[in-house]
Design a protein that fits this description.
- By secondary structure, this protein is of the alpha/beta class.
- It has helices spanning 2-22, 39-57, 71-84, 99-107, 131-146, 162-178, 193-206, 218-231, 246-254, 269-281, and strands spanning 27-34, 61-68, 88-91, 111-115, 125-129, 151-155, 183-186, 212-215, 238-239, 242-243, 259-260, 262-264, 289-292, 296-297.
- The protein has two domains: 2-127 and 267-291, Response regulator (Rossmann fold); 131-264, 3-Layer(aba) Sandwich (Rossmann fold), CATH 3.40.50.
- It is elongated.
- 43% of the residues are buried.
Length: 313
């Protein structure tokens, strides 16, 4: 009986929301993002709010943006969004435990688009970057800059789970294919500039000759570059990053002695989540998973990505 009532409620909500959106009324969209723990997370909030304001000004949406520190808090915010009358949720959780509240929202007729995380809920949509391709691009960049027999420090981040695993897999598989004689030495670190600085200072002391650094993250790389400068080392000729950090883009443009790159895994992708949600509400066919390919940003194209108005990330 409860299941029948839930299905009836979901049907009523679908019927109620479809004509409003079809008649040109703005869609009600709730955006739920984590509290800032890393520059990249801050970038998600910045880009989501900026794009939502554009869509609101164009009369396409009415939106609410909330931040949360854990799954319980975001669950409460989902309930509040449903009570507000949200027709779609764009969510970017950084933790597990979102399956039941997300499934509940979907069962009540809401469109739910998850950013950069798998959530086991039937009917959910997802927008994500391509972590493995970031590793592929990083390997090709390094081999191009320092050759196939150089010494490379790789900086995996085990605490990031599949993110690090996929980026390292793409890197290692590509190295095995195009430069099997490359000497790769791995040191674990974290996705912060503080850890990049601290850990790489120790790495420099332990390794008198390093040709390149495969770093998975822009902020880690900012710390690495500082450690290199502090040590006065001139042997390192290439370093990668990952994300889409404006400060790091500035370092790409400024560095003349080290070839600096970033594999884009940009917070800009949150905008695609909003586009997917609106397309679904409009009755368009959308893919269950939208993968945004990674692109390399280096000295040849970094000017295209600099955004002076973005002081967040």
């Amino acid at each position: 009986m409860k299941k029948i009532l839930a299905l009836a409620l979901a049907l009523m909500m679908c019927l109620a929301m479809a004509p409003a959106f079809a008649d040109g009324a703005p869609a009600k969209v709730a955006i739920l993002v984590p509290a800032v723990t890393h520059g990249w997370v801050g970038g998600i909030t910045y880009q989501a709010d900026a794009y939502a304001k554009e869509l609101e000004a164009a009369g396409k949406i009415e939106y609410r943006l909330t931040t949360s520190s854990n799954a319980e808090e975001m669950t409460a915010q989902i309930d509040e969004a449903i009570q507000w009358g949200a027709q779609a949720l764009v969510i970017a959780p950084q933790w597990t435990g979102m399956e039941l509240p997300v499934q509940n929202a979907i069962d009540q007729g809401l469109v739910v688009v998850a950013f950069d995380m798998d959530i086991d809920a039937e009917g959910i949509l997802k927008v994500t970057g391509d972590n493995k391709s970031m590793g592929v691009a990083g390997a090709k960049f390094i081999v191009d800059k320092v050759g196939p027999e150089a010494t490379v420090i790789a900086l995996p981040v085990p605490t990031s789970g599949s993110v690090s695993e996929l980026r390292m897999a793409g890197f290692n598989e590509t190295v095995a294919e195009i430069a099997p004689n490359l000497k790769v030495i791995e040191y674990a670190t974290k996705f912060t500039r503080e850890d990049g600085l601290k850990d790489f200072a120790d790495i420099l002391a332990a390794n008198p000759q390093i040709d390149a650094v495969y770093s998975l993250d822009d902020e880690t790389s900012i710390g690495v570059l500082q450690a290199i400068a502090d040590a006065g080392r001139t042997d390192i000729k290439a370093i990668t990053g990952g994300g889409g950090c404006q400060e790091y883009f500035g370092l790409i443009a400024e560095n003349k002695d080290i070839a600096v790159s970033s594999s884009l895994y940009s917070p800009l992708m949150i905008r695609d989540c909003l586009d997917v949600a609106l397309a679904k509400l409009a009755g368009e066919d959308v893919q269950a998973v939208t993968v945004i390919p990674s692109q390399i940003v280096d000295a040849s194209n970094v000017e295209e990505y600099l955004d002076p108005s973005n002081t967040i990330y």
